[in-house]
Write a structure and sequence with these properties.
By secondary structure, the protein is α+β, with helices and mostly antiparallel strands. It is built from seven helices and five strands; from the N terminus they run H-H-H-E-E-H-E-H-E-H-H-E. It has one domain. Helix content is about 45%, strand content about 15%. The two termini are about 20 Å apart.
Length: about 170
């Protein structure tokens, strides 16, 4: 579970605002592993997690029957096609990345509001093995504008070191 150091009653409304901003600009990412029901229920669940809970609660909610597909197609090494089980960690990995993305964007909004222009990268979730790319940015101060340029649009967020799957890093004031 992540330790979001600045997730509190002061910052939660800004996290929710970041989600609403993304919704208004069509920058909410729905997993290809969602069922039709999952696509319908994800955004309300994300908003509830931002308002009252965390990424762990969101993952638990997405693990409810009928939200995530049980199987998915995949290419084989020989160029063929097969059907495989969706990994049991899919909801957790997805929830951590997307909740963290909006927590960071919300913290950017909050920081700007209180006159802070940069945020510090830190390890918010411990893991057995760390990526060198993640370790290399721990402790860095990053300008809010630079963070937003990475995370505001869904497409650019996929390449951001700040929200790489299983990296365990986030930002704080």
């Amino acid at each position: 579970m992540f330790n979001f150091e600045n997730l509190n009653e002061d910052t939660r409304p800004y996290v929710l605002k970041a989600i609403e901003n993304a919704e208004n600009t069509n920058n909410i990412y729905c997993s290809a592993r969602f069922t039709e029901r999952g696509k319908e229920e994800y955004l309300p669940l994300l908003k509830e997690a931002a308002k009252d809970h965390n990424e762990h609660w969101l993952a638990y909610s997405l693990e409810s029957p009928g939200i995530m597909k049980e199987h998915e197609g995949a290419s084989t090494r020989s160029g063929g096609y097969t059907i495989k089980h969706v990994p049991h960690t899919a909801a957790q990995t997805f929830s951590e990345g997307q909740f963290n993305r909006f927590y960071i964007l919300g913290l950017c909004l909050y920081a700007r509001n209180i006159g802070v222009d940069s945020l510090q990268v830190y390890r918010a979730k411990e893991s057995m093995s760390h990526r060198a790319e993640s370790d290399s940015i721990i402790g860095n101060q990053i300008l809010i504008e630079d963070i937003e340029s990475q995370l505001l649009e869904t497409r650019s967020s996929f390449s951001s070191e700040l929200v790489k799957p299983n990296s365990g890093i986030s930002v704080k004031l």
